[in-house]
Amino acid sequence: VCVRLYDRCTVLFTHYTATVGCSFAYLPRTTSCSCRLQISGMAAGHESSGRVRLRRWLNQSLRVEMSDGRTLVGSFLCTDRDQNIILGSCSEYLQPDSSGSTVEPRILGLAMVPGQHIISVHVDGQCSA
Questions:
Q1: Number of domains in the chain
Q2: CATH number of the domain bearing residue 119
Q3: Tens of each residue's pLDDT in the chain, 129 residues
Q4: Which residues cross the membrane (predicted)?
Q5: Is the pTM higher than 0.85?
Q6: What SS3 state is found at 54?
Q7: Same structural domain for residues 59 and 120?
Q8: Cα distance between residue 92 and residue 72, in whole Å
């Protein structure tokens, strides 16, 4: 599917956006275009079970436990090949201190969680590390 956005040809996917070049530099607002995009390793109409699972998780509430002890809770928006995760409406929760007192969550808004710091991911109370 080719969609014109900001006067260039853009192909939109659920978890990422890829821009492809068109054969012309600028598009008038009334012009449509057709582009060809090939994704290596992906047969037409076939997605791996991992991609299907990620697609089901889109816009779901995700709890991400990080290597430094923090827990982030937010709406799953996207990921990439490096396993980084983007969470929307995200809040950060710290581990309770030794006296057992908890700290109020910190509101982060839109947050990028580096894949190298992710320990586990939980969706709707189900563990799927």
A1: 2
A2: 2.30.30.100
A3: 333 333 333 333 333 334 343 333 333 444 344 444 334 445 556 889 999 999 999 999 999 999 999 999 999 999 999 999 999 999 999 988 778 777 899 999 999 999 999 999 999 655 444
A4: none
A5: no
A6: helix
A7: yes
A8: 5
Name the β-bridge partners of 45: none
Do 112 and 69 sit in the same domain of this protein?
yes
Range of the structural domain that residue 16 is part of = 1-41
CA–CA gap between residue 15 and residue 29 (Å, rounded): 26
Same-domain pairing of 120 and 72: yes
Per-residue exposure over 95-116, b if at least 16 CB sit within 10 Å of its own CB, e if not = eeeeeeeeeeeeebeebebeee
Are the CB atoms for 90 and 111 separated by under 8 Å?
A: yes
